[in-house]
Amino acid sequence: MSKTTMNGQCLCGAVTVKASTNVAHAGACHCNMCRRWGGGPLMALDCGTDVSIKGEDSITRYSSSEWAERGFCSACGTHLFYHLKGKGQYIMPAGLFDAESALTLDHQIFIEEKPGYYDFANDTHNMTGAEVFASAGGDEQ
Q: Angle CA(82)–CA(115)–CA(84) in degrees, nearest 5?
């Protein structure tokens, strides 16, 4: 699959993003941190490292762990990214992008932390937190 450039922005437009990715698959993270951060699962895609962000002066970065930070627009509060510091990898909310309708939900992570009050109808690949950490080489939330 060839790379596609996806453009997006926060709710107020102060921050714009451009990600070149070959991923057309979105995932849902059910970890306690993501649910606390956004009030529900984080519906996102792995944008890798080829990400351009404009409006840095409007971004607040919260270091949620030693290895990752979460970013949001300081003007409107839009969640912008989950960033793995050491790898430079960005996981970005699917709704941030203009082309979100082209995405397919195909995986769920931290499935063991998903509360019982919601379920998705999609047939997805489900991974526990331990499986996510093992596949990522030990990086955590």
A: 15
